[in-house]
Amino acid sequence: MDFKWLKTFIVAAQCENFRQASEQLFLTQPAVTNHIQKLEQSLQCALFIRKGKTVTLSAEGHRFLPIAKTMLAQYDDGLQSFHAWRFGYDKQLTIAVAPQIASSILPAILKSFMQHEPTIDVHLNVVNSYDVVHEVLQGKADVGLTRTELTQASLHYDVALEEAVVLIAPFDTTITDEAQLLKAYRLITHNHPVYWDDLLADVQRAYPTVQTLKVNQVEVTKKFIEQGLGVSYLPHSMVQRELDEQQLKIIPPTRINLPTSKTYTATKVVTPETTAFLQFFNAALRS
User: Is the overall model pTM greater than 0.85, yes or no?
Assistant: First the structure.
């Protein structure tokens, strides 16, 4: 039995359409049909009931589907473990991380950690801030890094970093006053999962005529600011590189009480690998 047949069967079962399955698998439709026929011959039963262009699982197909998923998952895990062993890894660490952290403070820390712990095979899952917790809870990740506050009793979590939120403007602007800046530029909002609702209300009370532009990605926000499309309030660590490279600048506040931003670490099961990473991560942030 070829494991490619199993993957084709699982996708075809989800789509209930061989053409759609072929598009998802980047195969021709005849190749999909061939894989299914060979699997059916191997199992000596029909897995699908064919009605014109549509297909539905037979009773045998329903029974075999969870078995196929288990077999494929075990095959993938085993292959991954074997390749890790071949390349000198004897331990594994999966990190679920929010995009804001993955694109700012994590790269330099992760590079140093991987050099310091060369036998740990590191995997990174970049997911929505709110999904980081689910990755850890479901065992898909060993460590979670997020900007959202954690309340799940089954998780162990710590505040790894609490930092200032700053008003960020294009480097070439000559405006140094908060009020004039918010009059001249749109305020780019909702690029952070926590503080924007309260902060925006404060800004609108202080500056009722401020115009806004909602952008839900930090990297896009920074590019927009560089191009003069707006200004925004961002955690300092998210813009450190652009500040150093003189692409962006900080404008001091006058009427707005700026919030802080927290970075949380989360674990469910303590292992030598999670302990090593968290100690390294926290030490790097403190330095």
Answer: no
| CB burial of residue 186 (10 Å; 0-12, 13-18, 19+) | middle
Alpha carbon 196 to its chain's center:
20
CA distances from 177 to 59, 173, 197, 207 (A): 71, 11, 23, 13
Both structure tokens of 50: 């064919």
Per-10-residue mean pLDDT, the chain, length 287: 90 90 90 93 93 86 93 83 66 92 93 92 91 92 92 88 96 96 97 94 97 94 97 95 96 95 94 94 90
pLDDT at 89: 59
Q: And the tokens for 283?
A: 């030490």
What domains lie within the chain, and their CATH numbers?
3-86 (1.10.10.10), 91-160+263-286 (3.40.190.10), 162-261 (3.40.190.290)
Residues 6+ apart with CB under 8 A from 196: 189, 190
The answer to whether the CB of 215 falls within 8 A of the CB of 221 is yes
d(CA 47, CA 55): 10
